[in-house]
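In the design runs reported in the main text, the only information available to the sequence generator was the tokenized backbone. The following block is the verbatim input for one such run; it is reproduced so that readers can re-run the procedure and compare outputs position by position.
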């Protein structure tokens, strides 16, 4: 889902960059107000884990593969603002060090995965968890939805840039990422299930 350089028009990547900067700045301010002593090392560990996990791809279909996005995982562990910061840091390192995602498209990638995927996924999780008290189900649905929502945002950006017709890229992105989202849901549920057993105090909660 990482968009490379040259795939977005200046208008689209410029607008996405502006929104990403504003959103991440707001997340930094929000996280700063709620920051606890244990949060800083946990953010570092979470960043390292998600970075490493994103480097591991799992086969999907037709020769394609997917990897963990980790937004909902980070948001449930740390809260939505800190989770968005963690995913932003991971995306910046991937773009600068591993050329995974273009520099001009960095704002769009942050918007799609750190804002839409992480914060949007958190709101879905919190809504379902509050209504049903079924945190495992809420985690799975939110993790799956986070990937699909991020893919929709990516498709819209590509369509608006004229890179690929929207009627082609939107169903293609949703179709493949609906499958990838299942892997995201399984990994997120397993990791959080383990954390809840051994260190439930690390879960940020609602």
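Verbatim output:
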């Amino acid at each position: 889902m990482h968009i490379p350089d040259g795939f977005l028009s200046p208008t689209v990547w410029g607008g996405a960059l502006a929104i990403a900067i504003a959103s991440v700045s707001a997340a930094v301010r929000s996280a700063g107000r709620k920051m606890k002593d244990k949060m800083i090392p946990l953010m570092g560990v979470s960043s390292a884990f998600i970075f490493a996990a994103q480097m591991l791809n799992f086969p999907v279909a037709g020769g394609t593969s997917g990897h963990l996005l980790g937004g909902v995982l980070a948001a449930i562990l740390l809260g939505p603002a800190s989770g968005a910061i963690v995913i932003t840091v991971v995306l910046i390192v991937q773009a600068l060090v591993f050329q995974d995602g273009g520099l001009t498209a960095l704002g769009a990638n942050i918007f799609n995965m750190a804002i839409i995927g992480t914060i949007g996924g958190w709101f879905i999780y919190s809504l379902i968890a509050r209504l049903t008290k079924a945190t495992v189900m809420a985690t799975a649905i939110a993790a799956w939805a986070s990937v699909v929502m991020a893919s929709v945002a990516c498709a819209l950006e590509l369509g608006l840039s004229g890179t690929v017709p929207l009627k082609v890229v939107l169903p293609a992105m949703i179709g493949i990422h609906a499958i990838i989202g299942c892997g995201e849901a399984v990994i997120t549920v397993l990791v959080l299930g383990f954390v809840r057993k051994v260190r439930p105090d690390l879960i940020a909660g609602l």
